[in-house]
Design brief:
Number of helices: 11
CATH superfamily of the largest domain: NADH:ubiquinone oxidoreductase-like, 20kDa subunit
Order of helices and strands: EHHEHEEEEHEHEEHHHHHH
Number of strands: 9
Oligomer: single chain
Keywords: 3Fe-4S, 4Fe-4S, Iron, Iron-sulfur, Metal-binding, Oxidoreductase, Signal
Distance between the termini: 68 Å
EC number: 1.12.99.6
Bound molecules: iron/sulfur cluster, FE3-S4 cluster
CATH class of the largest domain: Alpha Beta
Shape: globular
GO cellular component, one term: [Ni-Fe] hydrogenase complex
Enzyme class: oxidoreductase
CATH topology of the largest domain: Rossmann fold
Organism: Azospira restricta
Structural class: alpha/beta
Largest sheet: 5 strands, parallel
């Protein structure tokens, strides 16, 4: 009996640090090995492929041709648009050209991480390369965005598994984010919320309040204006995983355009 063909996934890297892939490598259920060996057929990924150069580009083109209209396109990294897009080229093609070429016959497009979702770190003011998210280049089909720097791997995996199971993408909000993951404020589910409500704050790192697990708002926490499920889903192994505020660091709003690292953090008085 022939084994069921695994769905093809083409994963592009543009202006990025590969932290999104690193985050995926630390997922535990399923692990990335399980995903790419048993669930999907990862047919192009610059970091995980042994092949390089002409060989890997040929693999991408062959996979796109064989799976036209059926493959999933994942984009990691921002896309530079200034000066004709010359600031990111792979195999002689600009990121803009590759995005358009690969999106044309894709059944679904997922932008993983804040870079691919809205420009992220590379688009930080003054944004010298004109970095934008994938949905500024792909305008004829929906782009699901999984922002975060890095994003939570389970939000990405859940989106992929939803598509593979139902043949449709999960419900998204106006910014393309799956509602199951980005519809609640961090502040609503934070384990330090009782301290916020009672007015108990850490005033500096390592002080008594910080050691006691008090609220990090006065250290610049962006949880009250950041939508994400970090406190409930956690990073890494859900049995022993944690998240930024759980480790004693304020949320920097890494999932939200204009909240976090795109503008200076001014500590409240
Ligand atoms: Fe790296 Fe963050 Fe961009 Fe992902 S979103 S590639 S972790 S800078
Ligand atoms: Fe809200 Fe941040 Fe305080 Fe948590 S640590 S209660 S998210 S302000
Ligand atoms: Fe990012 Fe804040 Fe979650 S910094 S990882 S959105 S807690």
């Amino acid at each position: 009996v022939a084994a069921k063909k695994r769905p093809s996934v083409i994963w592009l890297h543009f202006q990025e640090c590969t932290g999104c892939t690193e985050s995926m490598l630390r997922a535990e259920h399923p692990t990335l090995e399980k995903l790419i060996l048993d669930v999907i057929s990862l047919d192009y990924h610059e970091t995980l492929f042994a092949a390089a150069g002409h060989q890997i580009e040929a693999a991408r083109e062959a996979a796109m041709k064989a799976n036209a209209g059926k493959y999933v396109l994942v984009i990691e990294g921002a896309i530079p648009t200034k000066d004709g897009g010359i600031y990111c080229k792979i195999g002689g093609k600009t990121a803009i050209e590759l995005t358009k070429e690969c999106a044309k016959d894709a059944a679904a497009v997922i932008a993983i991480g804040s870079c691919a979702s809205w420009g992220g770190m590379p688009s930080t003011d003054p944004n010298p390369t004109g970095a934008v998210g994938a949905n500024k280049i792909i305008t004829d089909k929906p782009v699901v965005t999984i922002p975060g720097c890095p994003p939570n791997p389970y939000n990405f995996l859940s989106t992929v598994v939803h598509f593979l199971t139902f043949g449709t993408l999960p419900e998204i909000d106006a910014l393309g984010r799956p509602k199951f993951a980005y519809s609640r404020l961090i502040h609503e589910n934070c384990e330090r919320r009782a301290h916020f409500d009672a007015g108990r704050f850490a005033m500096e790192f390592g002080d008594d309040g910080h050691r006691k697990g008090y609220c990090l708002y006065k250290l610049g926490c962006k949880g009250p204006e950041t939508y994400a499920n970090c406190p409930t889903v956690l990073f890494g192994d859900a049995g022993g995983g944690t998240w930024p505020v759980g480790c004693g660091h304020p949320c920097i709003g890494c999932t939200e355009q204009g909240v976090g690292f795109q503008k200076p953090i001014h500590l409240p008085a």
